[in-house]
Specification:
Largest sheet: none
Number of domains: 1
Shape: globular
Distance between the termini: 42 Å
Order of helices and strands: HHHHHHHHH
Strand content: under 5%
Length: 193
């Protein structure tokens, strides 16, 4: 609760006074969040929704979140895969986990990504090490991040209402189900496992 007081008392006036600098910094932080696990992406998403409204805030956040997630995935896949694999390759659970991530269904990956508390950083490491297909990962974040961003923007716009009003929660649940259905349709159409 104090974090939202901090946002309304300090951050929003600061954003109004130095608009360009804050737009740039906030969106660079959104882009960097999949690389740096300690960054609170939910707050940056909420700030974009509060400052720019539901539509423009969503679009700006979506573009930077997708670019950051995909770049992080590529970095993990190309640069860090060998280092991490060599260190943990002999561990039985590591091999089982990599096999699971390599064969995960597109629909399940979309569901994991769309969950509001999924760590982008951890997911990018897992998918990169598992040598997941770039196309499969890109499609899954394009669909899954829709719900992820909408949820955090919605929570940022009306924190108390989202937990006290069942209709608000129902909207998010409907979006998760629609994301799953959309991912199944795309999986079947393009024959992606």
């Amino acid at each position: 609760m104090k974090i939202f007081e901090f946002i309304s008392d300090f951050l929003l006036p600061f954003i109004d006074d130095s608009a360009f600098l804050c737009i740039f910094l906030n969106n660079i932080l959104i882009f960097s969040e999949p690389f740096l696990p300690f960054l609170p992406g939910s707050i940056f998403i909420s700030l974009n929704f509060i400052k720019y409204g539901s539509i423009l805030g969503f679009l700006i956040t979506y573009i930077f979140m997708i670019c950051g997630s995909f770049c992080s995935f590529i970095v993990m896949k190309k640069l860090l895969k060998n280092i991490i694999s060599q260190k943990f390759f002999k561990k039985k659970n590591f091999i089982k986990f990599i096999n699971f991530m390599s064969s995960i269904n597109l629909s399940y990956l979309v569901l994991i990504i769309s969950l509001p508390f999924t760590s982008s950083f951890l997911l990018n490491i897992c998918c990169g090490i598992a040598n997941m297909d770039n196309k499969k990962y890109l499609i899954s974040i394009l669909i899954g991040k829709l719900v992820f961003i909408y949820f955090w923007g919605f929570v940022g716009l009306c924190f108390l209402e989202s937990f006290s009003n069942p209709i608000s929660i129902l909207k998010v649940l409907i979006m998760i189900v629609l994301s799953y259905i959309l991912s199944v349709m795309i999986k079947n159409k393009f024959n992606i496992n």
